[in-house]
Structures are given as C-alpha cells and as structure tokens.
C-alpha cells in the first residue's frame, strides 16, 4: 500500500526520539508526533531535573559537612527559588541542545505537534491545539507514548494539592515539611534532595523496606544514611486517606498515626499512556499495564511496534532507547533482534548511589542455581578513602568454578558507572577471572570492580594447592586459609 511515511512514530520522548533518529538514518521517510515538547519525561519531569536538583542539594550538604574533608563546616542559606530556576534552566538547555524540533527536522524527520490516535492499523489522526486535525499514514508505526504518574485510589486525594514528578519541579517556594508516599527510586532521591535543602521529610510506604527491587542489605544501608541526614520513614504504612485544612495536609496511615505536612509528593509508580490512543481501532492488544509486545517489540499487529514506558516493561530511559533500537531493527532491517531482559541495569542516584544488574540472591535461590557471593567494601577502596566516601559495598553473585557473573549490586560513590562494567561483562561472557586479570587504573573507583574479582581468586586458592606448591618447589612460607567472608 502507498503511505505518507515509511515509519510513523507516536511520542517524542526518549524512545520516540531514538526510534525516529535510527529510522531516518536507515533511509526511511519518518514522521514523529508529539503533543507536548520533545524530550518527554526524562528531559522535562524526570532524569534531567531530578539529577540537577540532587546536585544542588549535594553542594549544600558538602558545604555544611566540610569538616569531613578537614575543612570548616559552612552555614549555607538556600535560595530555593534560585535552585529551582537553575533546575529549569538546565532542563531548557538540554532541550535546546538535544531535543528541539529543528534538530530532527534537519535530519529530514517531519515533526508534528498534536494528540495522536489510531483511525485504523495504518492511519493516525493528529489533533492540534488550535482545533485543526489531519490524518497521516505509515507503513510501520512505532508507539512510544510514554507513561504518567500513577495516582493511587486514596480517599481525599481529589481535595488535596498533590505533587507528582510532573509538578514538583515547578515549585517556587520550599515546603517546610514534605511528605512523600512511595519509597522507590523517585521517592528516595527526592527525599534526600529536599532534606539536604532544609525541608523536613517523611517517607511513607506500605512495604517494610525501601527500594524493593534492589538488594535488601544495601538498600537498608542507604536508608540508614538518609535517616542520619534527617529523613523520617514510616514503613508498613497503608495510607487510607488524606485531607487538607489551613494549608496543612494530614495523611492517615492506620496504626502508624497521622502524618502532617505542608506538601505531599506522590511517588507511587507510573501508568502507561494508553488512553486516548484508540488502540482498538488498530486492533492492538493492551492491558491496564500497557501495550502488549513480544520480545521483538511487536504488537498484535505485525507492522506496529511499541517501545518504552507505554509497554509497562522496565520504565527506564535507557530501556526505552534499547527497545527503540530493537523495534526499528526488526521493522526496517528485517534482522531478528530481541529485547535484552537479562542485562538491564538500574541506578538510584542518591548519595551514595545504589545500582543493580542481573539476578538477586533470592532469585538464584528460588531457581536452585549454585553460586557464591563475592564482596568488596568501599572502606577498603583507596579512592573512596581519599574522598571520605567509604559508605558502601560491591556485591557480586557468580559461579564458583568459572567466575561467570550472575548478578551484581553496588552501593557507593559512582555506583552507576561501576554497574556498567558488570553489565558489559555479563552480556559478553566476561568472567571474574577475566576482570581480575585486566589492568585497572589506580586509584580509581573502577578498581573496586577488579578488587571484588580478586576475591574470587582468593576463594579459589585452597590450602591443599599451596601445600602442593611447597612440596614441589620447596617453599617455606605459611599455608594461608581464608574464610568465605574474609576480604583480602
């Protein structure tokens, strides 16, 4: 059939931008439809503003705790309005440098502004803000419509001024007391940021721990750090209702007692943007979790693909980019490509950072997989010692015989960078032995990756082997034996 475009992309966030860019580089006539500004959640309400705010809060914290580095603690007056202006300025700079429409139009991508919805399996309607409409057709369609904050069914929410990540970075005045519902990555990051800026912060979560998808031991250590910085936690709390009177928000959480705050941030997850797409008109299967796709990102319609948050799968910017590459490769090159679900890293960008890739110990135990856990603490990592950033640990689950890495978690400074090394190793079959035999620069945080690999070597060396060497070569030193939890 004749269509207006080879590839029609719905959504201009991380997944949509990647999909459109790859498609046009492969010679496909491409259009991208976005109802708001290009860049999506990552640029406007997620990664970019949150990390900018975290950096500002870190600068304040370092000044106030300068004695940690042999300096004098400083009293810092926080200009909250100035900080938020800075956050929005950085956000705008990122947009102008990487996401502005003219950047993609220069690549011959047709950028259309408006709400998109399916009319049939190849036809998409676009409704513009001025009320005008048009229809465009695509040989292939890639849906990258993203997600929005999930608002749980809590009594009274409709009568309370509630913040989500979509409104948080528009604040002009700093709340004296901030309550955060949700102890996941967003809630944890913003708890630290606002506490360091001087807000009283309390985090409520129905679980008995924070960051439930991360290593429990390391997450507990991170929570202790945040508690030391003044964050209060109310865990195992079922939020029943909220109310607001005279500027004070009251959160009822059963036996945990009422919590009062001046502002309430919902960090309770995200829900896929499937409403309004008229997916039924195109015959696309979906659930409340998102559009149903196979491992090649194909929907129930073979020429329509979906990527990123709208699928309800891992809702990370880097996963959206990965899925966009998989979708376009399958659609245009006809080369079978599948989503790599086994090597998905994620990071919570607190200080210290908490990162993970692969399997947890509980996963391996449930599957009956034999493994050993190798550790290396930050308080024995020279670079961490020189920078007084000794909170944390590198933890790796691997096969004892071969050193094959099954999963890794890192709590500590630059954990996001260190987890990348383990991700590359796992995807490419690099073992702990290979890592231990590789020269790492000293003193760098990356040396910790080699040091944890060295622990595999240590555990492989048995007293029997040492005695054999002594017998053959006449060596006269001690026969050392290390316990399973001993760090060398």
Summarize this structure briefly.
The protein is an alpha/beta fold and 488 residues long. 34% of the residues lie in helices and 23% in strands. Strand 1, helix 1 (14-25) and strand 2 (30-34) form a beta-alpha-beta unit.
Defining traits:
single chain; 488 residues; alpha/beta; seven-stranded mixed beta sheet; five-stranded parallel beta sheet; 16 helices; 24 strands; 23% strand; globular; FAD/NAD-linked_Rdtase_dimer_sf; flavoprotein; Pyr_nuc-diS_OxRdtase; NAD
Low-confidence stretches are none
Principal-axes shape call: globular
The number of E-state strands comes to: 24
Radius of gyration: 25 Å
Strand content: 15-25%
Count of helical stretches: 16
Mean pLDDT across residues: 96
Task: Decide which structural class fits the backbone.
Answer: alpha/beta
Question: Could you describe the 3D structure shown?
Answer:
- By secondary structure, the chain is α/β, with parallel strands linked by helices.
- Helices cover 34% and strands 23% of the residues.
- It has 16 helices and 24 strands.
- Strands 1, 2, 3, 4, 5, 6 and 19 form a seven-stranded mixed beta sheet that branches. A five-stranded parallel beta sheet has the order 8-15-9-10-11. Strands 20-21-24-23-22 form a five-stranded antiparallel beta sheet, sandwiched between helices.
- Strand 20 and strand 21 (353-358) form a beta hairpin.
- The chain is globular, with a radius of gyration of 25 Å.
- The protein starts with a strand and ends in a 15-residue tail after the last helix.
